[in-house]
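In line with agreed milestones, the collection of sequences with tokenised folds has grown. A representative record is reproduced below.
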Amino acid sequence: MKVSCGEKPRLLVVANRLPVSAKRTGENSWSLEMSPGGLVSGLLGVRAQFDTKWIGWPGVDVYDDVGKKSLCSSLAEMKCIPVFLEEVFDQYYNGYCNGILWPILHHMGLPQEDHNDRNKTYQTQYDAFKKANRMFLDVIKENYEEGDIVWCHDYHLMFLPQYLKEYNSKIKVGWFLHSPFPSSEVYKTLPSRSELLRSVLAADLLGFHTYDFARHFVSTCTRILGAEGTHEGVMDHGKVTRVAVFPIGIDPDRFINTCELPEVKQQMNELKERFAGKKVILGVDRLDMIKGIPQKFLGFEKFLEENPNWRDKVVLVQIAVPTRNDVPEYRKVKAQVHGLVGRINGRFGCVSSLPIHHLDCSVNFSYLCALYAIADVMLVTSLRDGMNLVSYEFVACQEAKKGVLVLSEFAGAGQSLGAGALLVNPWDVIEVSSAIREALNMPAEEREKRHKVNIQYVKTYSAKKWGDDFMSELNETFSESEMRIRKIPHELPQHDVIQRYSQSNNRLIVLGFFGTLTEPMSNQTEELDLKLNPELKGTLKALCNDPKTTVVVLSRSGRDILDKNFGEYKIWLAAENGMFLRHTTGEWNVTNIPENMNLDWVDGAKNVFNYFTDRTPRSFFEASETSLVWNYEYADAEFGRAQARDMLQYLCAGPISNASVDVVRGNHSVEVHAMGETKGAAIGRILGELVHRKSMITPIDFVFCSGYFLEKDQDIYTFFESETLPSKLSHGTRSRSSSSNHSLKKKVSQNVLDLKKENYFSAAIGQACTKARYVIDSSHDVVDLLHMLAVADTTAYLKRWIDYVRRKKLAIGDTELVDM
């Protein structure tokens, strides 16, 4: 980031709505008021580090140029930049955002399209959504300066990360979702589901409120896109997008300090007098479908039914802030709520006392704090909520009274404040009723203990910390991403490989099997069977019979498959990622199966693999003692990916649900294997066996390692990186240079390897995103290279190498003479 000395770096915060209320007071004059809370609070700490500018819809429609110009000028003084959306606003915001995405994200399913309104279809709303995101991009482009960071907020801007990266791939882009993210079963009903996911994945960092939401997102990308879920996030087409959890908070000091103001204390006294002799249960919600206000009232009604002694001793005060009164579904909820209020007050109230005080309005901040402070119980019954900061606000205002929080387990806050709250299922009216009774009867000591837990969390995980943590993670993620780009490996220098090989005294060649040494298969192949490429038979024999060369085939395949293909060769075989090792005499040994390994999952998983193999033409699976691999490389691509997604759900819900296994989604495969076995973990043991069996005196001074390996197996490439020495270090300095703490690795380093950096070649086959030093286009190139290595020590090598280079140049259309 290029920032002049003394200047703060710039941050562009992009959200659907600016944090400003604008009211026109004249032809070219406006009255503006900054909205407190929300993102404004979340960026309190960030604003100290960055020159922050806001970009978003101003909240008002402005059609004349004079009004737009004057509003832009007024907003600029508050570091706000408007996006005028008049032409698309209704179909973008009321249509696609709130009418389609919002219900999906909140687990409500896809609303039915109104086929009588041809002007407002799924497609027209989707087009408006994309156009609106383009309009946001246009405003960003007008104001962007090199080095700016762009932080996009919420589902309204799901296309913006992709548009930003298309405009400038070097822009640092973060995206945070303030709502829940549903399970893949709900999300997959959404039209254009893949496009939205891939657009979001263009960002460098994706943030979610809870681990549940992040897990749902990663699994949805895995099942719908066929992407790979990693410990960092999601890998799709070689790009890694970081996915992390950042639970948002509030500014607790703002609430605590407000409760100390004289006018608020006066309001508190008035409320205490108003509800004298009664316990106060408080509810503060938007009046919409997900807040569970009807469920709250039903639970309260059940409580009054079962506890008649409380009927004139408790009151439920419900603040229901109106939202979208023009939408039929919202009007329906409002009518239902009003009906329940009338029924419950009619059943349990009297002229002088009503059990429910319901207000269809918002209240000012000071009065809200007073309500929070005098309440004995806060009742939150959300059916699905991103976080629900009302619960945080209640805790912040309860320093004196230490009331009880009854909290829905379906609110994001349930994962944050669950330790100090009473968690309930809002659909279970009996459970809600019991929780109300427990809260009202809770001893002071227990209330104080629970409040202490919650207030500590609210103060620690504030809105400021949320903003600081996100920006810190974004900067770190972007730096790591740039390092990955710089580390994109070069094409394997085959001439150097051959030259170094011929000059070395003890060579080690480590190869994968499937996709490396296997016979090429076509979609027309009748029998799907893993067979050694016949072109390699003579080459492998020559390499294996060379006393200066050791060849190891390290595969996830079982012993039977490797024996079938390599039985005639003096070759080292490592089956099931090194759990079983066969030396050149043909004897198999077990190298590492823990005594307590539980393989009860294998038979059940085999049934699932068989089921999908039978129903997916041209797919096949390999079974071994400790692993299963289903491969659909030669099946129809789209159908294979769909079947793989379904298979993962079957496996995770059934035979492997409680098993200690790793599940790996490859480009065209699904694999389940015993926990913790990777090729990198196995190679150290294999080298130890080599020392023992071959009685090595001359250390290995050349290594070539190549394969089509899954990401988690690519630790085999990095294993040898720590064993390489700079050219100037001699064999005598080997033991002094080793810094490994692992005893086996020390032994390997000192007794087996004398590996200089230029004598180690690792090459991934057809994988640009890899831990290997180099890439090689295909297994055909591996075959050609092995041919050359097999004859590298012969006098005919030079002629063969020249012929090989000529063939390669002719294949790419280069007819110039080869100068060797």
